Amino acid sequence: MVHAGFVAQAVNLMEGEGLDSAVLLQRAGIDKSVLQQAGSFVPLADAFRLMALVVEVSGNPGIGLRAYRHYLPGGLQLLGHVMMSSANLQQAMQSVVQYLPLLGSGFVAGLSEEADGLRFWFAGIAEYTQVRPRSVEDMLMASILGFCRWLTGNHLPQLREVEFTYPQPADTAEHQRLFACDLKFGASRSSILFDRQRLLQPLSSSNEALALLLGDFARYQMERLRGTTCSARVRALLLERLSQGPCDMETVARWMNVSKRTLQRGLIEEGTNFKSVLDEVRQQLASYYLRHRTYNLFRISELLGFKESSSFHKACLRWYGMPPGRYRAQLFDEQLCAASRELVSEM
């Protein structure tokens, strides 16, 4: 998964370059409402698909680099505020490494001391690097630079070297203009080597007390993410997306950015399996839909992901000991009785 701030930055880039973000989000299978939900995530595969579409529609393979011009300061949400309150850029970069899980999974990052300065690097986990479009890497690198510019009030730290994992493009003029330093392509990781002295210059937004408070909150949020069980994550995804299309085990594993086998093993370790979790979610949703008379039985069957109404009928016999129509009628009678009792008590 990747933080929705990545998608927000992509939307800012698209709109800044005159592209229709709503159409591209829809084609990538991303619900735009996720951008209004604090701390939300989207599957890496969907984010990669979006950036591939941005390149396809724009016809510009280097469009990701233009994220520097269209940088969105609020995209990082909590982590962005932690970085803003840091004493200097070095401390801000250390925050990214320390709280990386808040940005998602499927990648790692670090800081390494070198004779010429301090290198910030990040790399995708092998399972995902094979499908990552160049535009994703370009947008991330340009966004890092954009954030540094915004954080320092246009006083950019000096860059000594920038590494990209993809092969050298035929045209690197935009790279040279943007980074103005030595460039290396085909590297094992993406990285930016900063001049150390520039990184230690105080930030005008620095606030030690706020940094401590936000750091505590960031650690709390990380603990919450780590404490979420595999079955709880599957249940949340099914509740959100079951009505939108197929939700088999392979699809859910892709949303979680894990292999089908890893998902299966995680559920077994918790004493359950995918079929059981899916059945629980369907029963929970069925009770809601049958109690609220908005949809007919055929539509409810569709919303629960059943291919045939007969499968929904059999499931209700197993869950409630009666067909869905009779169960709905029973719920309606109970609601009438409860309303009558309440009316009598008020007289």
TrEMBL record:
Q: Does the keyword DNA-binding apply?
A: yes
List UniProt keywords, sorted A-Z: DNA-binding, Plasmid, Transcription, Transcription regulation
What Pfam families does the database record attribute to this sequence? Answer: Arabinose_bd, HTH_18
Does the keyword field hold DNA-binding?
Answer: yes
InterPro entries per UniProt: AraC-type_N, Homeodomain-like_sf, HTH_AraC
Query: Which is one GO molecular function term here?
Result: transcription cis-regulatory region binding
What are the GO cellular component annotations?
Answer: cytosol
Domain (HTH araC/xylS-type) ranges = 232-330
Q: Protein name, please?
A: AraC family transcriptional regulator
